[in-house]
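Hey, quick one: can you model this chain's 3D structure?
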Amino acid sequence: METDVIVVGAGPVGLMLAVELHLGGARVRVYDRLAAATGESRALGFNRRAAESLDQRGLLTRLAGLRWGPMGHFGGVRIDLSRLDDDHSGILGLPQARTEQMLTDWLAEQGVPVLRRHELTGVRETGNGVVAAFAEPGGGTEVRAHYLVGCDGARSTVRALAGIKASGPAATRGMYTAEVTGVELRPRPIGERRPGGSMVVCTPVGEDRYRIVIHDRGLPPNPDPDALTFAEVADAWQRLTGESLHHGSAPWLWACGNAAAVAEEYRRGRIFLAGDAAHEMPPLAAWGLSAGLQDAVNLGWKLAAAVHGWAPPDLLDTYHTERHPIGRQLIADAQAASSLYLGDEAVEPIRSVLAELVTYPDAAEHLAGRGSGLGIRYDLGPGEHPLLGRRMPPHHQLTLPNGTTTRIADLLHPARPLLITTTTAHPTAHAWTDRIDIITGTWTHQPHPTLHTALIRPDGYLAWTAPGSTHNLTHALTRWFGTPQNGTAR
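Sure thing. Here's the predicted structure for all 490 residues.
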């Protein structure tokens, strides 16, 4: 094989997947049809869980000057995050282009190739791998790998070539997005409703630069992005706000509808889908980008395990079973939030009821968890501990035998599974030390309920706890990390 995994698409999801695969010890190449990154920033930030995922790899600190949002909202209905037990705040005002550049720089430092001006034209499975055909300047080339992942957006070529269907609600209205300079605008970061179900959004993204979104009820459901002009954007803005943008300019602009779709399969044989290729949705609070980054973190370690030969037989199938329901929920939530966000005056009574409901902590925590990603719980085995199947809070600290204190997020930087024990050693786990790290220490603040032992997957989710899990540790280790090297557990 020329490489272990081919990643098609050099957007943030494809780049993050390449990070995960490289950390997992798999050879990876990223291919993209464009000659260079677009510089566009359709998303301005990401949710809490996506930020935690970057933090788990030591990447979040590379994005200097981050701004966290103390207020959340669902469809424009504000949620006071400061009243909740967990911190659901996300990153605000961070252009997607900065995240892409940070990931690109990291991969370059590690020597991971990102090959541009390579357009995928075909893919076929062989007995033990895949062969991808690319058109490139001067001709074409074929590349062989064990697996291929499509991170190539809503109009995914990988999805089409693999014959995977995607279904969801058709577009009912259009929207314009642009980055505007040479003007001075009043910020409207979560949107300002205009009569009849229209809305404008304006977010500062730098000195003399604004990202604007225009939800004009009068736009066609599927506007042509290639035909859009700055004059049309300026006309629409003036029509809704009375403010003129015509004296400014737009480094980039974009048009889309509000269609949404979820791929019926996230995996077909040796071909996988992630990000917008798996779950297409219109831009809304960076939910699509956030989910895509989490797709990458869920899939990367599993593919690396398969490459190394220790993945249990159904490990790769768990990517679909864990992430596909998240994609379906994402689309449903986006539809609900959009109805609230962009609905006309007739929706106001529903907004008022929801605004009252989110003053109750349990309701607010549930709704905030849908947007932040902290509400995700995978079925990782039977048991009663409330953290089982959820992400291990990355800020929890452990004091090691040498007296140093470290966060869970820091322990996850190598992208290896962790067995954390605060009582006695677990000799059972020693047979797996070629693929997991065993850490002994004491909690700086004991999680509630009491947690003596925690088996944490590389993506940060708890696969086994003591007390709390029904199955024993050997079962959990074998379930997620395969048969020990010597074939037995001591």
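One thing worth noting: The chain has a mean pLDDT of 93.
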